[in-house]
Amino acid sequence: MEFITDLLQYMSNNSSMLISLTIEHIVMVIQAIGLALIVGIPLGILAAKVEKLAPVILSLVNILQLIPSLAMLAILLLYFGLGNETVVIGLFFYSLLPIVRNTYVGIKEVDPGVSEAGKGIGMTQLQLLLKVQFPLSIPFLMAGLRVAFVIAVAVATIAPYIGGGGLGREIVGGINAQNDIRLIAGAVPAALLALLADFILGIVEKRTKRRFRSVS
To answer: What angle do CA 204, 141, 80 make, to 5 degrees?
Structure first.
């Protein structure tokens, strides 16, 4: 009970600093997810449309996911130096797999009959993709985005090891100082961020699934 009291007191006394670190954490994650969406969606579509490229693209993003996070950031540090920019690049790589894979699966899962109907009314391949196939694949994309967001929030906590910021500063600082209160003061907001992202994106995913079923 005394530990919880001390933890709450510490978080209250350092609330402005913790809020600042939380915002920094969120910004890094959003930047990385934004980049992953910009790159990952076209790659997923390309994999779905060009079958010969699918194994290559999916294998590459799988390999990125398999590299341990500290090793990934250490490699990036050699080329991009210390700072949040390097962290964002690392989070971007880790976010690619769920977005690419789910975009690919979403496009492939579209009912061929729906695609044939689009062709029957004179749609071009591009119109078919933009107006039929991609919109119907959004529930799958949202599931991938949900996973990517949670992964990015978690991996971002080790950002201080390469000079980055965010809530990891408190976590790593607590580890180095053997201070459990600092460690948990950083871990609790990070965990809450991951849970909140999972909850909100889960709701969006369920709504898009209902729309998908109604269209199907």
So the answer is: 110
C-alpha to C-alpha distance for 72 and 89, rounded to whole angstroms: 10
Predicted TM-score (pTM) of this structure:
0.89
Kindly list the domain boundaries of the chain, sorted by start residue.
2-215
Architecture of domain 2-215: Orthogonal Bundle (1.10)
CA-to-CA separations, 49 to 24, 53, 59, 126, 164, in angstroms, rounded: 38, 9, 16, 11, 38
Cβ–Cβ under 8 Å, residues 154 and 104: no
Taking only the tens of pLDDT, the chain with its 216 residues reads 778 888 889 999 999 999 999 999 999 999 999 999 999 999 999 999 888 999 999 999 999 888 888 888 888 988 898 889 999 999 999 999 999 999 999 998 887 777 777 777 877 778 788 888 888 888 899 999 999 999 999 999 999 998 889 999 999 999 888 899 999 999 999 999 999 999 998 888 888 777 665 555
CA distance 213 to 197: 24
CB of 138 closer than 8 Å to CB of 201 = no
Count CB-CB contacts under 10 A for residue 121: 8
